[in-house]
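STRUCTURE:
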């Protein structure tokens, strides 16, 4: 299978409506699960992400870990419950670009599932979305501002994930162990996980990330991964939380394949967008 240099880590089903040239331009691992609706983004390929080299986890451990379903009821992205009725995710999961204009997906085409460790069950809560917000400067995941907020149609009875503190720069120190979770693919060309997965990856320096990706920009992004690869997020994990010290510090955004040597995962640096995010939470 041909692989493109950079892909978002959203799910794959939405690829059906794309042209072959755009498919070859995809940023994240080929095995990601993307939303079902086709996205016309000629200037920026969609990103992919999933958990590779991880272990089973539960929503009892991480009650704020949620998954996004498209209009066909298929999982395509992740997110984090940061208030009882608010989920933060990647902008590229819920944005559409048509004729050069970025808009949000219709809320009616999205659902959020929480409290469901195994997606093959009916556990937990499946709720609708009443409003979709993406950062006003978002253009594509490779240009930063890859953050969005979903307002749920009803509050969820689960513990929420605190957002990184205003003075939380220390959470981004290179070598710090971060935890990422999701239901995406478990290998670059493999199937998506039915059970929630988690993996621990170290944060890397901005210089090392810039050496791996020409698209990397600081302070909009942060990278995490091992030099030898082997552990990473992958397709279907986009928008999922990167956690340090029990706080949300990043969102799965894009990468070159999944868990490749010398290609750490790229995450939205939540601290940079903290004020904009909290404004959406009414704080």
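SEQUENCE:
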């Amino acid at each position: 299978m041909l692989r493109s240099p950079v892909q978002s880590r959203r799910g794959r089903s939405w690829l059906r409506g794309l042209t072959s040239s755009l498919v070859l331009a995809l940023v994240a691992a080929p095995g990601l699960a993307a939303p079902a609706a086709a996205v016309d983004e000629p200037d920026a390929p969609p990103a992919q992400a999933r958990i590779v080299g991880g272990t089973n986890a539960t929503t009892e451990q991480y009650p704020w870990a949620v998954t996004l379903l498209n209009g066909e009821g298929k999982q395509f992205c992740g997110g984090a419950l940061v208030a009882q009725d608010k989920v933060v995710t990647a902008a590229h999961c819920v944005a559409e670009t048509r004729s050069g204009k970025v808009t949000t997906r219709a809320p009616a085409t999205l659902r959020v599932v929480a409290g469901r460790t195994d997606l093959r069950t009916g556990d937990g809560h499946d709720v609708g979305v009443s409003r979709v917000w993406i950062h006003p400067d978002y253009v594509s995941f490779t240009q930063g501002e890859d953050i969005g907020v979903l307002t749920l149609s009803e509050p969820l009875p689960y513990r929420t994930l605190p957002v990184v503190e205003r003075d939380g720069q220390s959470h981004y120190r290179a070598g710090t162990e971060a935890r990422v979770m999701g239901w995406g693919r478990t290998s670059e060309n493999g199937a998506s996980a039915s059970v929630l997965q988690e993996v621990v990856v170290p944060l890397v320096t901005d210089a090392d990330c810039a050496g791996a990706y020409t698209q990397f920009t600081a302070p909009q992004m942060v990278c995490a991964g091992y030099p030898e690869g082997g552990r990473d997020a992958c397709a279907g994990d986009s928008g999922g939380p990167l956690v340090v010290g029990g706080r949300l510090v990043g969102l799965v955004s894009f990468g070159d394949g999944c868990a490749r040597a010398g290609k750490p995962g790229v995450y939205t640096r939540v601290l940079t967008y903290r004020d904009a995010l909290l404004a959406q939470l009414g704080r």
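REMARK: Residues 13-50 have pLDDT under 50 and may be disordered.
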